[in-house]
Amino acid sequence: MKVLPMTSSSSTAAAALAFFSFQAAGSGQDGRRDRDTARDIRNERSCAPARRALRLAVWSLAAAMGLGAAGAQATPVAVDVSGVQSMDLLGDAGNTVWWIDVGAHAVLNRLSWSITLEAFSPSLLAEMQLSFGASSGLDQVSFTPGGGDFLSGTSRYTGMLDLGGLGLSVGADGLLRLEFSEAFKDFAPGVADGRWLGGTLTFDVTRATAVPEPASLALSLAGLAAMAGLGAVRRRASRRPD
Ligand SMILES: [Ca+2]
Questions:
Q1: 103 and 219 share one domain
Q2: 144 within a domain of the structure (yes/no)
Q3: What's the pLDDT score for residue 20?
Q4: Which of 61, 192, 221, 227 could serve as 85's disulfide partner, Cβ 3.0–4.6 Å?
């Protein structure tokens, strides 16, 4: 049998091919050599499509394994911020805090936004901020959409922030923590300085894809090989002249 050039992760797949080869050769030993030789030639031809199908299946599985091992999936996570009050200083109890499930150990690549903010006079748009990061509260990044606007009132902001160089990721719980706060507190504690009137924040994250467990993969391959081997033996039996 032709040996396929397998990658290092495909030794189980190669074993599955060897198993199939053993099944195909094992039924030719009944003593009637001459007739069997001719029949084996016919059977060799009849087994070829099954063998080719198995080879393709194993190749597909090996390709899937390769993708799974190296796989990472870029996913946008949109957060509607409509109606969030901009309350107190960062870390104060009165602030709005959200936890968004973005997938275990997901890496944060980019933040884009299209939002409308309102700062209640005398509070300023430049004071409204969002801090985000892992649920542990470590490595928080503070983002101020209206950073240059030292004025009160309403304004719309759109933009994009590349987070790629920061190496930000969430922990095993998959939770991205968002805290909305003020850089300067104008009103009494518990009285909002402003409001996120509407719009969406979109976090572009990369999630690691699941890699199949070696044990379950070996079982799948053994099952695949057994099915293909059985098919070849049945085909031989159905072609026996006696
Ligand atoms: Ca303020």
A1: no
A2: yes
A3: 28
A4: 192
Reduced to 3 states, what is the DSSP secondary structure of residue 216?
helix
Tally of structural domains, the chain? 2
Q: Whole domain around residue 173: which residue ranges?
A: 73-208
**3 lies in some domain:** no
**CA-based torsion, 145, 151, 154, 156: positive or negative:** negative
Which tens digits make up the pLDDT trace of 167-209?
Answer: 899 999 999 999 999 999 999 999 999 999 999 999 999 997 7
Is the same domain home to 128 and 231?
no
Q: Has residue 40 been placed in a domain? A: yes
CA of 78 to the centre of ligand 1 (A): 26
Ligand 1 centroid from CA 183, angstroms: 6
Centre of ligand 1 to C-alpha 124, Å, is 6
Cα 234 to the center of its chain, rounded Å: 41
The pLDDT tens digits for 28-56 are 344 444 444 445 445 545 545 555 554 44
- Ligand 1 center from residue 148 Cα (angstroms): 14
**pLDDT bucket at 138, cuts 50 / 70 / 90:** confident
Is the same domain home to 158 and 63?
no
